[in-house]
Write a structure and sequence with these properties.
single chain; 14% strand; two-stranded antiparallel ribbon; 118 residues
C-alpha cells in the first residue's frame, strides 16, 4: 500500500506502508538474528518512537516496570514519559537487571561504564 503525503512543494513523496507479511518477517529477523541487547535496542526504538540519542540516555532509574513507562530526559528540560507494551517488559528486564547488578547508571553501557548503545 502506498500513500501520497501532502506536500507544499512540487515534488511529492510516497510513503510505503509495510504489509503484515513484511512486518512479520522483520520481527522474525530480529528474534532469530540478534542478541538480547540488540533486540532491546530495536524494540525500544520501535515501541516508544524515541530517538537514538534519547535511547542512550535512558538511566535504569528512568524505567518504571510496574507502570510500563520510561522517562525520556531532554537537554532542554522538556522531559516526557513514553509507554511500552506489557509483552516487552520481560525482554527489557533481561537488559536492565544485569546492568543494575553491575551497578550501571544507564540501560546501555560499555564495559568501561560509558553510555553506549551497543
Amino acid at each position: 500500500m502506498k500513500l501520497q503525503s501532502p506536500s507544499t512543494s512540487q515534488h511529492s513523496r510516497e510513503i510505503t506502508i509495510p504489509t503484515s507479511e513484511e512486518i512479520q518477517r522483520y520481527y522474525q529477523a530480529i528474534e532469530n538474528n540478534s542478541t538480547v541487547q540488540e533486540r532491546v535496542i530495536l524494540k525500544t526504538l520501535l515501541y516508544t518512537g524515541i530517538r537514538l540519542g534519547e535511547l542512550v540516555n535512558i538511566q535504569l532509574t528512568d524505567i518504571d516496570f510496574d507502570s510500563q513507562q520510561i522517562l525520556i530526559r531532554s537537554e532542554r528540560g522538556q522531559d516526557r514519559i513514553v509507554l511500552f507494551p506489557v509483552n516487552f517488559k520481560d525482554l527489557l528486564a533481561m537488559q536492565a537487571d544485569p546492568m543494575s547488578q553491575q551497578q550501571a547508571t544507564y540501560l546501555f553501557e560499555s564495559p568501561q561504564h560509558h553510555k553506549c548503545p551497543v
